[in-house]
Amino acid sequence: MNRVRAGKPLKPVRWPGGARCAFALSFDCDHETFELGTGRAAIGRVAWGEFGRRTGVPRILDTLSRHGVKASFFVPAVAGLIAPDALKPITDAGHEIGVHGWIHENTSLLTRDVEKDLMLRARDALHDMTGQQPVGHRAANWDLSAHTIDLVASLGFAYDSSMMADDSCYELMSDGLPTGLVEIPVDWVRDDAVYLLFNRAPPTRPWTPPDAVFDIFRREFDGAHAEAGLCQLVMHPFVIGYRSRIWILDQLIQHARDKGDVWFPTHAELAAWVTDPAAY
Description:
alpha/beta, 16% strand, globular
């Protein structure tokens, strides 16, 4: 039970600029590696991932731009290497790029040495492609090995965003000792794929209409606003990026904007603030 645990809470007593809460948006750009990371390469499923890059990401970037909001994009290195130029519009718009595995691999199945090698290769490849040094890590499918958090901490990342012990940030503990690593927690409740993803293996079907997904996410945000806390969302360009769904993102941002006192940080900005607001 003590291998990795939640440590001290990192919920700040205030947010920048007098904001009441933080709304941290993130997008997992799995693209073709959603298929390739399983060891398969079905042509149709690869094209499905390609939709995320060609169509989903531009729609997301357009929506974020219209609202003047920054976000974090977690990218498997191979997804970036397939089309490196596609990362430029993301970074040019001021968004963050984070590590999301080498090829969207299940890290819980890897040895420590292999996991470390792939994590380093992924970080270095994203740096080479973007000129940005990634400071954030998110495990593919949120599958962590017993070594993942120690590796993320030892390799100098500022934060991880793969775990679910809270809905506010906290410090990660490893074998009872503080790691100095910020956890920006995720949850399946705040993930678009849970409600909207079609998949043959394992067999899943979209079961929640977009209106209901919007309502769930809005209620998560409203709860965070009431508690003066954090609302963090995870979306995927090949899930949220369709014409019938992109409005969810647009209306969520507008709903938050209408409150008038909401901070929209990247995950890197959020980790820096909860660690030391005075130095931000």
